[in-house]
Specification:
Blueprint lengths: L1 H30 L5 E5 L6 E6 L2 E7 L19 H15 L15 H4 L3 H12 L6 E2 H7 L6 H9 L12 E2 L14 H22 L1
Parallel strand pairs: 4-5
Antiparallel strand pairs: 1-2, 2-3
């Protein structure tokens, strides 16, 4: 009888321990989970879908085939978090008064790729920090900037995986020939050309102001 009770007690304690471990693991995973909020903006390149958590922007998606508007404003009613509002403010300035974009802080980024130590993450972070408005680099130059001049194709792959276009400016990466190259898998080439032209006009305007 005593042996059976001990066996039952051991089984009971094992169940309690397993349940406790499950609760702790669940709590840890839940605390690390990002709650995303979305907003859609009208823009000169079509509608833009922004997603952000409380720590920063996760994704920007340019919706091909949507109406292109001169104004940049939220479409429909949505609750905009402070992080999303910062991104909205930045994009409004970028499209409407790009010559003043340097007066605004860059939005915080919190997509997992931007937080990782991977090669793609390093390439995108370097592009984000080093290649400002109106500047361009080739794929080879960007590869050299991250310390691996032979990784031109890997740099191109990183551009295709960029989750936050416009803010992480993959449109500023060109072919060595100077050709603009493809954008959004070749479906947004006209958008890339528009963005580069838009930024050049802003630089020209700043140059006139400084004369």
């Amino acid at each position: 009888m005593m042996w059976r009770r001990r066996e039952q007690l051991v089984v009971f304690l094992h169940v309690i321990i397993c349940y406790t471990c499950f609760v702790v693991q669940f709590a840890m995973s839940d605390s690390g989970h990002c709650v995303l909020r979305d907003v859609i903006l009208s823009s000169p390149v079509g509608e833009i879908l922004l997603s952000a958590c409380e720590k920063g922007v996760h994704t920007i998606h340019i919706k091909l085939g949507t109406a292109k508007e001169e104004s940049v404003r939220p479409v429909g009613q949505s609750e905009i978090s402070p992080e999303l509002q910062c991104c909205v403010d930045w994009l409004q300035c970028y499209f409407m008064k790009p010559e003043s974009i340097s007066t605004l802080p860059l939005p915080a980024l919190h997509h997992p790729l931007m937080q990782s130590d991977s090669f793609k993450g390093h390439v995108l972070s370097t592009l984000f920090k080093e290649v400002g408005l109106g500047k361009t680099v080739s794929y080879k130059q960007l590869a050299e900037m991250v310390g691996n001049p032979n990784a031109v194709r890997a740099v191109g792959s990183a551009m295709k995986k960029n989750p936050i276009p416009l803010i992480v400016p993959c449109h500023r990466v060109l072919r060595s020939s100077g050709d603009s190259g493809s954008y959004m898998g070749g479906k947004g080439d006209d958008i890339k050309v528009w963005l580069l032209t838009h930024e050049k006009k802003a630089l020209d305007l700043n140059a006139l102001k400084n004369e």
